[in-house]
Task: inverse folding
């Protein structure tokens, strides 16, 4: 019922950057984080002990089952609060639905979103709807955090280790759902990763004193990691062969089920990506694949990395892997550079 699915339906990132840059958005002293730094959410200070985290996310369906779609969309919307180290408090539904269609579909979408919000202990308190042809669903979420405890995307330190908590490949697998009959095992793994909250991963990164974090969504691993490296004024060295991959994603790429985001994310990052070693084409596609409800990319001190990884795996984020490290820029590598190392 829709033209493009999930986070692959986003506006192209390089176009969005151009649109946003010439508008005087305004600010005040209580705005601690806004979108000028390409962070995951906005943060507004209420007091010395309390700040509110504000974010919104919504997209078109990625699967045919409406209840499952509602769960995925809510999980994705909540993720930005977790990426900042915050706790979701409440949310508003964002709904677009053609009311000439079966309204039970919309009811199931809302049930799925509500159940996932309840799992996050986040209360849905209202929303807004419009009658248009394309289905859209998501949440505007408010969370809380102590201003001293914000984990932004711009504080990665030299020597930090990079950990990714979910496998890549949701974009191509969602295309497989749309255009092919996806193997049941592949489908089950895909749904599991897209409906798994980043709640535990967020709590654990706080415990192990992470310096920076972002969640991997529509701009792909390359786009979001580039933003984090650039805002931290560092370079990221990525061991590509260590990156976790959702089962079935390589098959989907072999079937040429790429999304339009594969191209737009390459354009967005093209001046900041260098490759070492023999490039493995399948893995390269996954670096640019737009993720729906992806994992957290965490920058953590080296002394805490193994302990964090162990806790992540033991507490359910079993795809978590150490995938790289943070270094200072040099004359050859400017801030924001990603070095994709394909050597074993």
Result:
């Amino acid at each position: 019922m829709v033209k493009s699915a999930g986070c692959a339906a986003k506006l192209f990132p390089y176009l969005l950057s151009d649109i946003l840059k010439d508008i005087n958005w305004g600010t005040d002293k209580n705005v601690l984080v806004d979108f000028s730094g390409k962070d995951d959410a906005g943060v507004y200070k209420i007091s010395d002990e309390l700040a509110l985290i504000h974010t919104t996310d919504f997209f078109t369906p990625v699967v045919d089952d409406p209840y499952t779609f509602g769960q995925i969309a809510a999980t994705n919307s909540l993720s930005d609060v977790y990426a900042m180290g915050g706790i979701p408090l409440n949310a508003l539904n964002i709904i677009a639905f053609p009311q000439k269609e079966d309204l039970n579909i919309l009811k199931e979408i809302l049930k799925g979103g509500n159940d996932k919000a309840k799992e996050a202990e986040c209360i849905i308190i209202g929303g807004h709807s419009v009658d248009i042809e394309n289905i859209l669903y998501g949440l505007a979420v408010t969370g809380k955090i102590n201003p001293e405890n914000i984990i932004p995307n711009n504080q990665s330190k030299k020597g930090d280790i990079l950990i990714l908590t979910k496998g890549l490949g949701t974009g191509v697998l969602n295309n497989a759902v749309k255009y092919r009959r996806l193997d049941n095992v592949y489908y089950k793994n895909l749904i599991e990763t897209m409906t798994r909250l980043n709640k535990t991963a967020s709590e654990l990164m706080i415990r192990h004193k992470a310096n920076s974090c972002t969640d991997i969504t529509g701009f792909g691993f390359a786009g979001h990691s580039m933003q984090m490296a650039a805002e931290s004024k560092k370079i990221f060295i990525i061991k590509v062969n260590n990156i976790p991959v959702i089962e079935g994603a390589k098959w989907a790429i072999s079937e040429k089920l790429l999304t339009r985001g594969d191209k737009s994310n390459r354009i967005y990052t093209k001046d900041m990506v260098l490759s070492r070693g023999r490039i493995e084409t399948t893995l390269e596609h996954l670096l640019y694949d737009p993720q729906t409800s992806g994992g957290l990319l965490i920058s953590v001190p080296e002394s805490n990395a193994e302990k964090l990884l162990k806790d992540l795996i033991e507490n359910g984020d079993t795809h978590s892997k150490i995938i790289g490290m943070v270094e200072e820029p040099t004359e050859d590598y400017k801030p924001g550079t990603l070095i994709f190392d394909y050597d074993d």
